[in-house]
Amino acid sequence: MKVLVISDSHGRTKLLNEIVERVRPDHVIHCGDFCTSRQNLPSGSLTVVRGNCDWETVPEEQIFETGSLRFFVTHGHRHQVKYSLLPIRYRAQETGADIACFGHTHLPICEKDEGILLINPGSISYPRGFKYRTYAVLEKKENQPLKVSFYKVDGSPVPELAYEE
Questions:
Q1: Cα torsion for 92, 94, 97, 101, to the nearest 10°?
Q2: Lowest CB count within 10 Å: 23, 72, 85, 102, which one?
Q3: How do the pLDDT tens digits run along the chain, 165 residues long?
Q4: What is the homologous superfamily of the domain 2-164 according to CATH?
Q5: What are the structural domain ranges in the chain?
Q6: In the Cβ-directed half-sphere of 69, how many Cα atoms lie within 13 Å?
Q7: Is-above-0.90 flag for pTM?
Q8: What angle do CA 144, 102, 118 make, to 5 degrees?
């Protein structure tokens, strides 16, 4: 299973679709601030949430399940992610999630906290606090460890952000 985690595309639908075409994921998670009409988002298996800059009517939070993994997906602005990851971790625990995917800060991170894997893929439009525009790819193969890789928008890896269980 391969999941593309992306956020804060801010209207860059052509770039978003190029990334989806390059990665060819089984599922796409967009953590909000897509800033375009819903019809311009990638077709196929997609979980999308509303960011603070979005006008389309999509959920503020969603749960996505695949295999034994349960994802909590939100943009993060309602969970004060610019100040602390504690509120989003608590919310993910409330939902029974293994993984929390969020955006809003435009800063890529991947860390495990109290059993919850927290993933912010960064931004494919406007990075903050990091020099590259980024997205993340989560891969889980049978009898293999969970792996999260980060990439620049041109597809080149960002190894210093990689995570493996």
A1: -20
A2: 23
A3: 999 999 999 999 999 999 999 999 999 999 999 999 989 999 889 999 999 999 999 999 999 999 889 999 999 999 999 999 999 999 999 999 999 999 999 999 999 999 999 999 999 999 999 999 999 999 998 889 999 999 999 999 999 999 998
A4: Metallo-dependent phosphatases (3.60.21.10)
A5: 2-164
A6: 22
A7: yes
A8: 45
